[in-house]
Amino acid sequence: MHNALNRLQATFGFFTSCAFTLALIIAVLSLIPIPASTSSPSASVAVRNVQVVKGRPHYYSPKREEYAQIRFDLNADLSSLFTWNTKQLFVYVTANYPNGKDGQGDLSETVIWDTIIPATSTPYSWQNLKQKYFPEKKKSNSKSRRDSNAKTKTTDLVKPGVLSLKNQKPKYQITDPSGVISERSNATLQVSWNLQPWVGSLVWDQGYLGQRIGKWNAGKAGRSEPFDFPPLKGTKTDTVKDKEGPRTPEAGSASPVIEI
Amino acid sequence: MLSSLAPYLSNPRQTLAQVLNFALVLSTAFMLWKSLSVIADSPSPIVVVLSGSMEPAFQRGDLLFLWNRDKTAEVGEIVVYNVKGKDIPIVHRVVRSYAPLGVGADADASASPKLLTKGDNNVADDTELYARGQSYLDRKEDIVGSVRGYVPAVGYVTIMLSEHPWLKTVMLGIMGLMVILQRE
Amino acid sequence: MDAVVAQIQDLFEGQIDFDGQRLAEQLYTAILSISSAIALVVGYMQQDIFLSMWIGLAGTLLAMLLVVPPWPVFNQHPQPWLGSKVSLPRGGIVVSGGKGR
Asked: Helices B166-181 and C2-13 sit at what angle, rounded to 10 degrees?
């Protein structure tokens, strides 16, 4: 403590201890949880249309596999998960189907759609203050149009976590390592979420912590009715190219941009 | 040169004590790292995010804490894996998990689910990143651990130092200045 | 040249006396603990975690400003050092010995 440098080091050391303790307290408060959430998340998902077509993984791949496109409806209210310690919520819809014949066997799970819902900017957040004190220069017209398109994709900023999708086109067309996904039965769609906090541990909807802070509402646990994959669309002669290669637009379908 | 060594050689016991002290600090740090490896059951229990492929969840420079004691990697988990033959760990999310084939008597007990990963900020999944001929990951062979928690921004210093080498000279300059200005 | 370097070294060292050191330590412990507590409570009330961060950082800055530079308040009780050999009484200082001396 004799010279200034020593005092600087001592102060900084104590600051890190304080910051660490503060972060620990905030993390534990989020998991207990305090404040207790008044509502719990609820979701319902239903299958609208399933199509199975033959395609190839890349435009240059000689492999031809079957791809399934599952259009769905999704209504979810996950707003109770957004606390002061929430950084973002990753919501994803998986198609789960048993791997064996006749609807038996272990479950294979594939994500068909996902989205990231960032937490709203609070008055003192990094983004808000940056806007206030260092406002962004006006970008060129074309860029701002693209940005405003991007902004309309996210959910309502006043109440984050409310999703309402109708006949949503999936982000990913799924296949099976065996190459065959047609005529599989007993498949379901399941909505899941992954909450990422500012400080603390990540929480998934399944698992001990998820049950503590975000138990699904009874009857609205985000699972669809069982459905079967239809047989291969024999009449479709063109190949459906997966997203990795250059895409020829199919008649009547838009480019891979999600409309919410 | 020898004259500057004289104070150290004249009192060998003190010098050795200082060397021992230094070695103690180093070995304690090494022990802490290795015990963390054992507790988490992972060869590298703490990693730094290098790319922006998981934004906005993880920015470059974030420190990640891994846990490797789960037998399965569920869809939606964020895992760190090494591509076969390469040493760079990649942090991405598991998007697909295919159960091994066979039911009942047919079942291959040693088979584990095939996993496919994808970065949140990437459009395509990681098929292109895997080793030649490998289309899926295996939980036991490829995955180093599952991300359970993180500390933001602390690792950014290492990234900044490697990307802006002039910062190293600035740091050395500051250290030199401190040596001149300090009394001890 | 050496005198200039010595002056800069003095400035850089920022010496304070022992009472001052104790005061400095109490000061930064108190300021940091109180500002962390305030940060937690205010952030929780406003449901804004960034507010906690800014309050915490402000408290740290305040603590550093108050403690690192050698303010005069830290030098109120300078240590009374004995002078050099020249100013000692002739014959040296006699220390009353115990048994065996």
From this structure: 100
Q: What are phi and psi for residue C35, nearest 5 degrees?
A: -70, -35
Residue type, B103: V
List chain A residues with CB under 8 Å of B117. Answer: none
Neighbours of chain C (3+ CB pairs under 8 A): A, B
ipTM attached to this prediction: 0.78
Over 80: is that where the pLDDT of A89 sits? Answer: yes
Domain presence at residue A260:
no
- CATH architecture assigned to B46-153: Ribbon (2.10)
The verdict on a CB contact (< 8 Å) between C28 and A21 is: no
Q: Please tell me if residue C70 touches chain A, with a CB cutoff of 8 Å.
A: yes
State whether A7 and A48 are in the same domain: no
Look at residue B120 and tell me whether its pLDDT is greater than 80.
yes
- Does residue A219 form part of some domain? yes
pTM listed for this prediction: 0.76
Domain of C27?
Answer: 19-71
Q: Which helix (H) or strand (E) element contains residue A51?
A: strand A42-56
Neighbours of chain B (3+ CB pairs under 8 A): A, C
Q: Judge if A8 and A95 occupy the same domain.
A: no
Nearest to C67 among A11, A21, A25 (CB): A11
pLDDT, position A249 = 45
Residues A17 and A54 placed together within one structural domain of the fold: no
Quickly tell me which residue has 């651990």 as its tokens: B145
- Shared-domain flag, residues A83 and A111: yes
C32 versus B50: the higher-pLDDT residue is C32
Give residue limits of the domains in chain B: 1-39, 46-153, 157-184
Angle between helix B12-40 and B2-10 (nearest 10): 80
Q: Could you list the active site residues of B?
A: 53, 92, 126
Question: Which of A18, A30, A82 should we substitute to test contact with C (largest number of C Cβ atoms within 10 Å)?
Answer: A18
Same domain assignment for residues A18 and A80: no
Interface residue C8 vs chain B (CB under 8 A): yes
Q: Domain limits at A112?
A: 39-241
Q: List strand residue ranges (DSSP E) for B30-129, in order.
A: 46-48, 63-67, 78-82, 89-98, 114-118
Domain count, chain A: 2
| Mutation to test the C interface, candidates A20, A84, A87, most C Cβ within 10 Å | A84
